[in-house]
Amino acid sequence: MEVSDITNLLIPQSEWAQPDLYLYENDDRLKLNIAGAIQYSGISSIGGVVLGFRLIQHAIKLTAGSAPTQRDAISIYTAFPGRGTQDAFEYTCRAIRDNRYCCDTSLHHPAAQLGQRGQFLFTVRANEQTMVLTPADGLPQRSYFDADRHSKDGNEAALRWRDEKINFANTLLSLPPEQCLKVL
Questions:
Q1: Contact status, residue 120 vs residue 114, Cβ threshold 8 Å
Q2: Predicted local distance difference test score (pLDDT) of residue 8
Q3: Which of 27, 47, 88, 125 is the most exposed place for a label (fewest CB within 10 A)?
């Protein structure tokens, strides 16, 4: 399935809440968007891509409001090894390339959402402020984890896993960043 095919399974872009993010690279104002992050990453980890984009949006809003933020002023320390979130962090702030990203699946926080591998636990430093974030309660749904756990059980299970990732992405796309995440 091509990227354009899966984007047809997403809610219409006109229904995406806050699809853009503005960051700076020196004096250049960059307009980044969720569609670009999806195009950058591809389709296999679409839920993680949208989650990662929402994380950066929310962190910037909390630390800077509407003030300019340099993309190299953002760093991420996480317990979640998902490729989609990594791609979103690289697309938005070049955190992996510039060694401002670290994943340690042994990290634990009692209030963070558990994942199949590690926790949905993200410590984001932006504008000299640090916050710990996890998805909002109920995101993703339990069916997401069940589908992931059984995704290697055949074609039908693989399709269910793909559908769960799309459903998760659609939920995140329909909500503003502050409803997708909570600060711990």
A1: yes
A2: 85
A3: 27
Cα distance between residue 110 and residue 99, in whole Å: 27
Looking at this protein, which amino acid is placed at residue 22?
A: Y
Residue 64 tokens, joined: 């800077």
What single-letter DSSP state applies at residue 31? Answer: E
Q: Cite the DSSP H helix spans in 107-182.
A: 142-149, 155-174, 177-180
Tell me the CA distances in angstroms from 53 to 23, 57, 77, 91, 118, one per residue in order.
Answer: 12, 6, 15, 9, 19
CA atoms of 166 and 5, how far apart (whole Å): 12
Please check the confidence at residue 74 and state whether its pLDDT lies above 70: yes
pLDDT score, position 5: 61
Q: Is the pLDDT of residue 4 over 80?
A: no
- Which sign does the torsion angle of CA 94, 29, 22, 132 carry? positive
| Residue 163 tokens, joined | 């559908």
Q: Reduced to 3 states, what is the DSSP secondary structure of residue 95? A: coil
